[in-house]
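Deliverable D2.4 — example input (structure tokens):
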């Protein structure tokens, strides 16, 4: 029995829920696609009523010769529905 092979088998690809998004660089117009693993990536924070919500911050840089950094912040509720999103350096476009 190949013990190590068994250990190295990756978990099913559908573990976790992915929230896909796309942004457009405001400097060069490049469209950059990304995704958030809403089960693993966001970290818990608490609002003024001690109600938890989940925040994920990402910095995206395109493949072209452009040094614009695009920062996105997503906020999710407890059931991982999108509450709010913010972006600097670009704009959200259809994923
Ligand atoms: Zn750019």
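Example output (designed residues):
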């Amino acid at each position: 029995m190949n013990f190590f092979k068994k250990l190295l088998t990756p978990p099913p690809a559908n573990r976790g829920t992915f929230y896909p998004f796309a942004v457009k660089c405001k400097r060069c117009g490049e469209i950059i696609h990304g995704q958030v693993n809403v089960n693993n990536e966001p970290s818990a924070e608490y609002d003024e009523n001690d109600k938890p919500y989940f925040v994920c911050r990402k910095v995206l840089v395109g493949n072209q010769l452009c040094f614009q950094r695009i920062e996105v912040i997503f906020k999710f509720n407890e059931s991982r529905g999108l509450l709010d999103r913010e972006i600097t350096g670009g704009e959200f476009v259809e994923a």
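The CA atoms of residues 1 and 7 lie 12 Å apart.
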